[in-house]
């Protein structure tokens, strides 16, 4: 069990819908980084991450998301995260990242 | 009154990213056995994983080396010691991240300190780093 990334472009909302399943850590964060940066290269639109099935993320994963947000900001887009589990919400809160990502529901 | 007993569990882990999840599972089992609640177990998993990640990314001298983890179980307290024989660092130079201007990198130790009750880092340039962290089981369990 590691990380599964499902991606879809939502034409109506003009945003990327990304579903993360599993764990983002030192072993899987490169895969996440590569995937997200490639998407933004393809279409410079807001990225919305569904974290319903995201069990775990560590500082390397958070670093990837910060990097992705920086890239998105160049195009005036944002990084949204929805359905966050309590343990991950706590981490975003501790690190202040809940203030720079758009946290939904 | 029963005399308190200290239990020691030791692991030697390869300097490879794929083994960090093994450590997370191991510590979850230990903390669960000790009666920590779900939230505390999550915190403990995150903290030990950050320390292991640092041992692998910053500590390593060579891929083929291992690093060591010791779990010390005493009464309601779980202490974890992660020890690598890597290049070490100057602990005074580890800074607190600026929460208003998040950067990629520099979050790990801050997260560990936020989640654990006690954290102590000792490092010797060229010799290695030891991070020792403890969590007490709360009364709400
Ligand atoms: N085991 C170690 N060996 C050598 N240096 C270390 C070790 N652990 C931490 N450090 C030093 O302390 C710094 C801060 O570590 P910390 O985990 O907070 O951030 P990071 O690893 O650089 O990035 P992040 O954890 O956010 O991915 C590191 O950049 C490194 O210089
Ligand atoms: Mg780190």
TrEMBL record, chain A:
The cross-references to Pfam families, in alphabetical order and at most eight, read: STAS (PF01740)
Spell out the CDD domains in the cross-references. Answer: STAS_anti-anti-sigma_factors
Residue ranges of the STAS domain?
A: 17-105
InterPro entries referenced in this protein's UniProt entry, alphabetically: Anti-sigma_ant, STAS_dom, STAS_dom_sf
Q: Which domain of life is it from?
A: Bacteria
GO molecular function terms attached to this record = anti-sigma factor antagonist activity
Q: Which NCBIfam families match?
A: ant_ant_sig
The similarity annotation says: Belongs to the anti-sigma-factor antagonist family.
Task: Specify the protein name.
Answer: Anti-sigma factor antagonist
Identify the species of origin: Alkaliphilus pronyensis
Source organism phylogeny: Bacteria, Bacillati, Bacillota, Clostridia, Peptostreptococcales
TrEMBL record, chain B:
Gene3D superfamilies noted in UniProt: Histidine kinase-like ATPase, C-terminal domain
Keyword check for Transcription: no
Question: What organism is recorded for this protein?
Answer: Alkaliphilus pronyensis
> Which InterPro entries does this one have?
Anti-sigma-factor_SerPK, HATPase_C_sf, HATPase_dom
Protein name as it appears in the record: Histidine kinase
Q: What GO molecular functions are on record for this protein?
A: protein serine/threonine kinase activity
Q: Which UniProt keywords apply?
A: Kinase, Serine/threonine-protein kinase, Transferase
Q: Does the keyword Plastid apply?
A: no
CDD domains cross-referenced by the UniProt entry: HATPase_RsbW-like (cd16936)
Q: Where is the Histidine kinase/HSP90-like ATPase domain?
A: 13-135
């Amino acid at each position: 069990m590691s990380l599964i990334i499902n991606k879809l472009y939502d034409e109506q909302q003009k945003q990327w819908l990304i579903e993360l399943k599993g764990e983002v850590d030192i072993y899987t964060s490169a895969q996440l980084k590569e995937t997200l940066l490639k998407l933004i290269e393809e279409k410079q639109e807001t990225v919305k991450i569904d974290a319903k099935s995201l069990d775990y993320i560590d500082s390397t994963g958070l670093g990837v998301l910060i990097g992705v947000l920086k890239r998105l900001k160049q195009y005036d887009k944002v990084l949204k995260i929805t359905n966050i589990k309590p343990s991950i919400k706590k981490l975003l809160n501790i690190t202040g990242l809940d203030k720079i990502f758009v946290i939904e529901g | 009154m029963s005399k308190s007993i200290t239990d020691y569990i030791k692991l030697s882990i390869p300097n490879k990213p794929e083994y960090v999840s093994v450590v997370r599972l191991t510590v979850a089992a230990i903390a669960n056995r000790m009666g920590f609640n779900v939230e505390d177990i999550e915190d403990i998993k995150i903290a030990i994983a950050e320390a292991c990640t640092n041992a692998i990314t910053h500590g390593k001298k060579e891929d083929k080396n291992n690093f060591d983890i010791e779990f010390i179980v005493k009464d309601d307290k779980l202490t974890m010691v992660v020890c690598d024989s890597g290049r070490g660092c100057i602990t005074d130079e580890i800074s607190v991240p600026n929460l208003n201007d998040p950067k990629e990198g520099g979050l790990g130790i801050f997260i560990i300190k936020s989640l654990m009750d006690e954290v102590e880092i000792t490092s010797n340039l060229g010799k290695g780093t030891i991070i020792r962290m403890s969590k007490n089981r709360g009364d709400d369990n």
